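Record type: monomer structure entry
Structure origin: computed from sequence
Chain ID: A
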Amino acid sequence: MKRSVAILSLACALAACGNDNPAARLGSEGRAPAENAPKLTSEPGTGSPAPRTINIHPNHPTYQVVLHEREGGIVDSIHVRRGSRHVQTLKPSPNGGTAGLGADRVSTPDLDFDGHADLALVTELAAGTSRSHYWRFETATGRYESLGNRETLQVDTAAEALTTFNRGGHGGRIWTAARIGVVDGALVPVRSEEQAWLQDAQAYIYIVRERRGSRLAEVSRDTLAESELRAGPSWHNDDQQD
């Protein structure tokens, strides 16, 4: 089975220096990168897809992340190197996920807002939603630790917030949202908000849950009139006010 290799160079922001734009997403071929975004370059190939190289902080020593793909462009493994030294092999799940996403499948968000870039790989892509595998960079060991595979997060570096938001039926009146945190080496919801429709009562309800120990506990439940319906979670209102 043919294997193609796409090479991504990640700066020492992963190990020992800050990253001015740690959540920058890798640009796609054929699309001009945004100002201050890392530059994506291609080198001549030998029959297989040309390697893609990204330099986030080119003035410092770099980590290299090599994506090993199966036929069809599905990522089988990710090899992390520093210079010529192999550091570790990462195994995305489930099974490398969606094929044909190109460089846009990879991003380097700062998931715990410690100033060091972490790693995200999109593994599933469907209408209106996607899933990603996440790894947190441990500065003490210089290695990536898996945070698992979950719904793709929205990363707000300025607000230091990881969130999800999904609209359902009723013209978007039904929705669920959550704030996510890194707790004991895992990505877990620390607060959730939900607007749902109760068929029996013929009414909308708004439910808020907050993390209590190892689980989310319901802290409020309100029945809403049509004029009281919310377009999204409370933190969307905060963003609009800012």
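Annotation 1: The helical segments are 234-241.
Annotation 2: The first strand starts at residue 4 and ends at 11.
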